[in-house]
Amino acid sequence: MADQLVQQIVNGLLIGFIYSLIAIGLTLIWGVMNIVNFAHGDFLMLGMFTSFWLYTLYGVDPLFSIPVCTALLFILGLLIYRFIVSKVMKGPMLAQLVVTFGVSIFLANLAVFLWSPDFRLIEKPLLHGTWDIGDIKLSIPKFVATIGSVIVSLFVFLFLRKTKTGKAILATEMDREAALLMGINTERINSISFALGSALVGIAGAFLSTYYYIYPQVGGTFGLIAFCVVALGGFGSIEGAFIAGIIVGLAQTLGGFFIDPAYKYAFVFLIYLITVWIRPQGLLGW
Amino acid sequence: MGTKKLWVVIISFLLVLSLSVYVHAQPKVIKIGAIYPLTGNLATTGLDCKRGVEMAVEIINGKYDLSLPLAKTEGLPNLGGAKIEIIFADSKGDPKNGMAEAERLVTQEKVVAVIGAYQSAVTKTASQATERLKIPYVCSDSTSPTLTERGFKYFFRAECTDTIFAKNQFEFLEDIKKKTKSKIDSVALLYENTEWGANVGKEEQKYAKEFKYKVAADIPYSQNATDVSSEAGVLMKNKPDVLLHASYITDAILYTKTFKELGFSPKGFLTMAGYLEPGYLATVKGDGNNMIVRSTFALDLAKRKPLVAQVNDLYKRKYGMEMSGNAARSFTAPFVVAEAINRAKSTEAEAVTKALMGTNIPGDQIINPWKGIKFDPQTHQNIYATGILVQIQGEQYHTVWPFDMASKDVVWPFPGWKK
Amino acid sequence: MRNLTFKQISLCLIVLILVALFPLAFSKPFPQHVMILVFMFGMMAVAWNIMGGYAGMFSFGQVAFFGIGAYTSSFLLITYHVNPWLGLVVGGLIAALVAAAIGYPCSNLRGHYFAIASIAFGEIVRTHFNNWKLIGAAEGMTLPMMKESFENFMFHSSKLPYYYIMLAFLIISLIVCYFVATSKMGYYFRAIKESHDVAKVLGVNVVWYRLIAIMISAFLTAMAGTFYAQYVLYLDPESVLILPISVQVVLISMLGGAGSIMGPVIGAAILMPVSEITRVMLGHKGTGIDMLIYGALITLISVYQPKGVWGLFSGIGKRTK
């Protein structure tokens, strides 16, 4: 029983780090612009498909397609911000909530239209298989994704604190008006944040594609959890999203294993509710 | 105008009139409605079913030297060669759409019968609508037993029920125990927590008790999960001898990968539905080997029934892929409907329904491994519908049970996962 | 909103007469079904509007109340042979109670946090019902085919009674919304929406009024749920407790114009026919084009006409952010 416990903890961490990676991009957008990007899951899907097509058509391993995913999703984020999101920023909050829903439905069905609803899988990524560490089985692709998640999160953390643009982003997150007064071009910060957030989830898509099946509606499943993770961690807090992702992964796996698998997502949502009741701004939000 | 010109006009007019009358006297079109989840989560399945239906209609409408009803003639001979036209409708997997589409197909598109809808919940509401409208509904792809327990007059089901499939699994276990003398005491039930999966779970519980197997674990799970480690963990903790898994395609893929990753190797995997879909093997490839799936169709039945190979060849030529179990199921309904209409010599609902009551298609005229198609007078369930078990070997489906119908020996126990 | 002008009243009456005559002109079931969906989703959108458009609580969990209403009346009917009209009221009350129970701890959540909490709530309800054997769990419940009558709330030979009943429900919800909007309560709702703190300073019991808004909204939504059950005669968690229904309700309100009485109805009158007709015409191809159009439509409306269609017509004091 004890080794099952360890195995489940390991599994929980592995899925948790992926949630973290997905959530980081989302929390960045949310924190800077106060916009919930409901299409975030669909950006993930596009990242996965990019990785898939590069693999299938050109034999590029998902790990090496990361730069392409990053660039493509960055540009997509820029375009969507410029032509759609920026226009609703001045509008009512409801429009802001809803516009990304529209984009989400559009993107998911564009994928159906272009690539059919069929399921795809990358069969043999470069790093595949399972490590046996004693009685514990460690999935190599998931482990690689975990390492990737840590590296990317670290990069984002450093970027936000050490670079000029990064600091400007943080400043805008904290106090938009003050940032404006300080001469920061908040509009430019908005578009960079949206693009960066999209790029980050594109990277997550590349990692996820190494072991999860790829299809147009995959965004829905991960997207919903990502919102809980972000809200749990506190909007805008990268560290918060990172930690919350791991908590959610563990809650889902351990709750599912020890209590009831049928309720495993309900546990995640329950944890979210309890957390915001006690601490409305999330764990590390401001 | 002169009188001559007037006559020319009148005669031309009469000629045109007679021509149009002649055109109308051509075989008319018989419309049948087909409801399937053509978009949404089950789109791949719905489109698979659509292929089966379209193949059937092509054979009915054309002239083929096949031992299928109405294949050798173009269209329906008793109705002047009238051809079948299928009007497809998208249910999106939503029962209220099933109801609305059935009503629309009947009242606006004027279909004379309805087939479909794969998901039992949608078939339920759609057939409720046709029952109210007094139009025949022939289902060959929904397996919920409750569909034929409603006492409906106009609803007919050609396919097996989940009750039969669940029982098959335990009958197989009894047979394999005798054959290999292996010890099989416990089963684990793993099923998708939807209307279909939950019902399967219930039936399996019932038969586990009847056949005296211990249920080591009973795990319903949410479909489209991001991760199934906890479910797999519970299974590994409880160490069942055999796993019974009812899932649609998405989770079939995820579970296979997870089981391999975690090294879950019971003596056997008895599965349903999702594992039969072309997308499953296309995605998991070799990892799907040795999965046993319930079915009512297998390509290797061709050894006893050349018709199967002939139909599959046609299908392959048209679609570039082998006929799947889903497509084969949906393939049946158009034949049942068309044959009944032809026998009734009418498209009128009461006549067709009466004809369906008397349907008796012999086994050598269907691609399924049944004695035939004949409906029970009370429940309208096909009394000859039985299930078979196929096993994936070498990334292909082979019939392995009943043993006297098997084309290959079943690989038992599960030999473990290949690296 | 002030008292309605003569022009507005006569316009409403004309629309009402046209709507009442519609099924007699279009006697096929499908157009009637589309209109019934317009009324049903319109009612849910009006209910949403009371707590969302007016009181500023953007709920994405309305489907939970819809499901509670549907399940309550159906369970009582099947197990205890309780008349569905009575079941309707019980379902509404239970939904309102649940709404209060969840609304209270969430009462100081703002904006996005509230929205996500409502999604979490909806999903928890769905998961629970999916595993609750008493009400059929994942297999759902099938309503018995009873003799056709108003008392039985069931009709087989024609959709007309369903049509007029749902229309009546919609009108009831509009009347409720009107009274809420024009009463002191509505004034408090809008104050709360603008700013919690200011409202508190003004002496408004913020928590209490938020709860009232949620409870009214829940009761009305549950009514729609009971109607659905009696109309389709089958329910399971996958058809009455899923997130897309909540989202659709919000979209309709936004499209039509949140914060106005008729806005949500207009939204439903546009969105439901569009989605049904695109599904019928394009869905069967399986290419997803119908949803593509739907998504594009929502995006365009949000960008170019965020106040909704109602915003196009009314210039009177529409609140903007």
Question: Summarize this, please?
Answer:
Chain A has 286 residues and is mainly alpha-helical. Chain A has one domain (2-216). In chain A, 74% of the residues lie in helices and 3% in strands.
Overview of this protein structure:
Chain A has helices spanning 2-33, 40-58, 66-88, 93-115, 140-162, 164-174, 176-181, 186-208, 218-233, 238-258, 264-278; strands at residues 130-133, 136-139. Chain A has 286 residues and is mainly α. Chain A has one domain (2-216). With 419 residues, chain B is α/β, with parallel strands linked by helices. Chain B has helices at residues 3-25, 43-61, 95-107, 120-133, 162-180, 195-210, 229-238, 249-262, 278-284, 306-319, 325-344, 349-357; strands at residues 29-36, 83-90, 113-116, 137-139, 155-157, 186-192, 214-221, 242-247, 268-273, 292-295, 360-362, 372-374, 388-393, 396-401. In chain B, strands 7-6-8-9-10-13-14 form a seven-stranded mixed β-sheet, with helices on both faces. A five-stranded parallel β-sheet of chain B has the order 2-1-3-4-5, sandwiched between helices. A two-stranded antiparallel sheet of chain B has the order 11-12. The model of chain B is unreliable at 17-26 (pLDDT under 50). By secondary structure, chain C is mostly helical. Chain C has a domain at 28-242. Chain C is 73% helix and 1% strand. Chain C has helices at 6-25, 29-54, 62-80, 84-103, 111-131, 160-182, 184-194, 196-201, 206-232, 237-240, 243-256, 263-282, 289-304, 308-313; strands spanning 141-142, 234-235. Chain C has a two-stranded antiparallel sheet with strand order 1-2. In chain C, α6 packs across α7 and α12 (263-282) packs antiparallel against α13. Residues 316-321 of chain C have low confidence and may be disordered. Chains in contact: A-B, A-C, B-C. Chains A and B meet through α1, α9 and α10 of A and α2, β7, α7, α8 and α9 of B.
